[in-house]
Amino acid sequence: MRQLSFPFLAMLLMVAGGPAEAEQQVLNIYNWSDYIAPNTIPDFEKATGIKVNYDTYDSNETLEAKLAAGNSGYDLVGPTLTPFLAHQVKGGFYQVLDKSKLPNYVHLNKDLLARMAVFDKDNAHAIPWMTGTVAIGYIAEKVKQLMPDAPVDSLRMIFDPEILAKFKDCGIAMLDSPTDVFPGALNYLGLDPDSQKPEDLQKAAELLMKVRPFIRKFDSSEYINDLANGDVCLAWGYSSDINLARRRAKEAGKGVTVVTSLPKEGTARYIDTLAMPADAPHPDAAYKFLNYIMDPKVIADTVNTIYVESGNGDAAPFIKPEILSDPAIYPPAEQEKKIFAISTSTAEIDRLRTRLWTKVKTGH
């Protein structure tokens, strides 16, 4: 039998060890855009030697389509708790987390974990990443000029056609997500914001068709810079995004003052999570990242960058005081009472909502 030369044998050993080595060296993450501190990934790579491929999306619908297709190649993804994570867990999209590999789990916010456990028993599949609300964002100077008595703390600012008509020319943006728009419209109509009655959804769609002529764009990411630059003056968006636009506008120093406002009638709270797909190719690397970002100091960097409440209960000492005292980020108790969650719905209702949303966006 011909003997293998040492170089050839070494090469075979390297190939044989490839998968195990790759397990430790690669991590693929799919998360929301503009949702992490710029130093977090480089610092993690430096600390662990793991190469991170970090891709972004701007809607839960985009993430769900990617996961539903299978073989996404991602090790960690960032679904919103309800209704997305809740029904994705039922669908077997995610693997159960081994919390013995997550010593920093003890730092997580107990209240958020309790809320999540209602939809993910024993918090088996996900950890809380960030939480916020669907909110009104507006440019103070333009609103004052066009309508000094504008109801900026009310859902009327977004869903009253007569009011939106006044701001059409300066630009209005609305989230491209029926899950985040229909509840606000239902609430404005005095209906259950979590209603799954077809007739209620139809009423919400009819209302949205009335405001449709005044909406410049349906978008879930570009509106951040649009607000910061003054390219739009009003938006129905995520509080974390609007707060980020507020900070960018201030840093730019061009006389644009972005304001985040929670409607007095109430609004939806979202809890964005991190979960590991069932077919994650690099689970060990994923556990290392999960544990890393649950360090209070590490997650505080992201909070201080994007101005949002994190899922970490012990990060407060490392967070800027102006963030902790901001009612748009940490709503006062009276406002919190009016903040609601959206539950999962049937596939039939999901299809109906999607059809109605398509009609709203196209305008016919």
> Whole-number average pLDDT?
92
Order of helices and strands: HHEHEHEHHEHHHEHHEHEHEEHHEHHH
Residue runs with pLDDT of under 50 for 5 or more positions: 1-23
Structural class label: alpha/beta
Note the beta-strand portion.
Answer: 5-15%
General shape? globular
Largest sheet: 7 strands, mixed
| Number of continuous helical runs | 18
Helical residue percent band: 40-55%
Span between N and C termini?
Answer: 76 Å
Describe the structure.
The chain is an alpha/beta fold. The protein contains 18 helices and ten strands. The strands form two sheets. Strands 4, 5, 6, 7, 8, 9 and 10 form a seven-stranded mixed sheet that branches. The chain is globular. The termini are far apart.
Topology overview:
Layout: H1 6-16, H2 18-25, E1 26-32, H3 40-48, E2 51-57, H4 60-68, E3 76-77, H5 81-90, H6 110-117, E4 126-139, H7 140-146, H8 156-159, H9 161-167, E5 172-174, H10 178-188, H11 198-211, E6 217-218, H12 223-229, E7 234-238, H13 239-252, E8 258-261, E9 269-275, H14 283-293, H15 296-306, E10 309-310, H16 321-324, H17 333-336, H18 347-362
Parallel strand pairs: 1-2, 1-3, 5-6, 5-7
Antiparallel strand pairs: 4-7, 4-8, 4-9, 4-10
Helix pairs in contact: 10-11, 11-18, 12-13
